[in-house]
Amino acid sequence: MQAVVMYGGGGGGGVKGSISTKSLAVGFRALKSQKQHYTSSLDFSNRNSQLSSSSSSSSSSSGLRLNSLSSSSSMATELTRSSLFHSRPVLKALASSPSDGGDVEEVRPLKSEDDVTCALPVPQQQQGKASVLPFVGVACLGAILFGYHLGVVNGALEYLAKDLGIVENAVLQGWIVSTLLAGATVGSFTGGALADKFGRTRTFQLDAIPLAIGAVLCATAQSVQSMIIGRLLAGIGIGISSAIVPLYISEISPTEIRGVLGSVNQLFICIGILLALVAGLPLAGNPIWWRTMFSISAVPAVLLALGMAFSPESPRWLFQQGKFSEVEKSINTLYGKERVADVMTDLNVVSQGSAEQEAGWFDLFSSRYWKVVSVGVALFFFQQMAGINAVVYYSTAVFRSAGIESDVAASALVGASNVFGTTIASSLMDRQGRKSLLITSFLGMAASMLLLSLSFTWKALAPYSGTLAVLGTVCYVLSFSLGAGPVPALLLPEIFSSRIRAKAVALSLGMHWAANFVIGLYFLSFVNKFGISSVYLGFSGICLLGVLYIAANVVETKGRSLEEIERALDPAV
């Protein structure tokens, strides 16, 4: 025989489920043995709870199964300590409707083990939020390395070129810069396959190998070949990181703060770039300092591997692998034991709709999945083709035109704008939503690009061209960091179903790195042929196209669990 239990949560709807009476009796005795920890009353005034007995058609079911309950009415039910822990514990408390005053209609004592209904205390959501943060922090070491390796060569290139004897060879210098992007493209595709095969935490540990070895090779390079190999390995490492950091964070984050934690990925990328800038400050007084700059990056790689040894695996990946005991252990570590049944039920609901194997690469292009996969690819296409890297590459020249001669000051201003905007975006992500931030961001970028274009060509603005160019650059970077920067990496793991999530994220990030590589390769050629003003005007047009695409194709995911989103977007679930 089974009984029904009702839970009330402080931040969401109540949940209802069934449990075997034998298991409930054991749990009830455990509650009774710890009665000294309870206050004189248990107040459930924030949740409408109906407690009723029920029988289950599946008598073999012994585990807790919870289903979400939406209720528009409210009530208060108070069970006093003397009632709950009396010699005959409470069996049933039926509450009247709000119109009746919400009083308890009936309380009957326990007569047998087979006749039980029980109310349990409210789970503590805040505990789950806090327990996730250390593991998000460990994962973000990958994001810091992402940003650091992107930025470290900017200050170091001039000095390492002298050390390696390639000052006059712009082609080899270009290879040292672009090899990182080529490696990242390979790594982003590899990361999805590794994450599916070995799990998220093990992939992080594997990722630390090319990151650490690449850093050491770059720091000790005595030839261009060694430097390029080191940069290639580091690129593979940051490519894998770019795929699995947002994936892991989205899969372990509680729904109510997933937006904030997801945007932390972009914030730490920005911090990594700033750290690379700061690390380059001693170069003027110590020309061989560039070796130390590269060697420093090996430390976070080692810490990432060690940290992931103590971090829980993604419950969603474990569930896909059928490792149910490990799933419960992971959920307990991440959110606390109060939410184990809750999360397990969400995972069960999705698995009941689809018992398919993991998708292959070609499945991503099927009619079932391509529509949602194309959204991820398009978002990263618009992100890169909107000109963010071009603006950063050209920012030094723009600031010099305004009388700012210091390259460090120019880079610092751009980097600080990026960090500031991303911090603001983090606070708005779960309030304003992903889609609205994307639209606002691309509109701001379009306006900033238009201002930059006009500042170079409109004669009436000639006296203010330098100031307007700086203003346009800063506003562009701010607009980018408010949505176009952090949202795609957060949104993609949310909209992709668990069956295709890792591979679809990898494919989308492959577009990111490919577009990044193309912009870096052809930007200056386009500037020389068409002029900087025309190129910026083209970027403005791409931003407007991005706004139209987002408005028509992107769905809002704010406040919805990954399983809810999957059920909404995949009719087969």
UniProtKB/TrEMBL annotation:
UniProt membrane topology term: Multi-pass membrane protein
Gene3D superfamilies on file: MFS general substrate transporter like domains
Start and end residues of each Major facilitator superfamily (MFS) profile domain: 135-558
GO cellular component entries: membrane
Region spans: Disordered: 42-65
Cell location: Membrane
Record flagged with keyword Lipid biosynthesis: no
InterPro entries reported for this sequence: MFS_dom (IPR020846), MFS_sugar_transport-like (IPR005828), MFS_Sugar_Transporters (IPR050360), MFS_trans_sf (IPR036259), Sugar/inositol_transpt (IPR003663), Sugar_transporter_CS (IPR005829)
Pfam family, any one: Sugar_tr
Keyword annotations: Membrane, Sugar transport, Transmembrane, Transmembrane helix, Transport
Transmembrane portions of the chain: 132-152, 172-194, 228-249, 261-282, 288-310, 372-396, 436-456, 468-492, 504-524, 530-552
Entries under PROSITE patterns matching the protein: MFS, SUGAR_TRANSPORT_2
One GO molecular-function entry: carbohydrate:proton symporter activity
Compositionally biased residues, Low complexity: 45-65
SUPFAM superfamilies associated with the record: MFS general substrate transporter (SSF103473)
Matching CDD domains: MFS_GLUT_like
Family, as annotated: Belongs to the major facilitator superfamily. Sugar transporter (TC 2.A.1.1) family.
Name used for this protein in its record: Plastidic glucose transporter 4 isoform X2
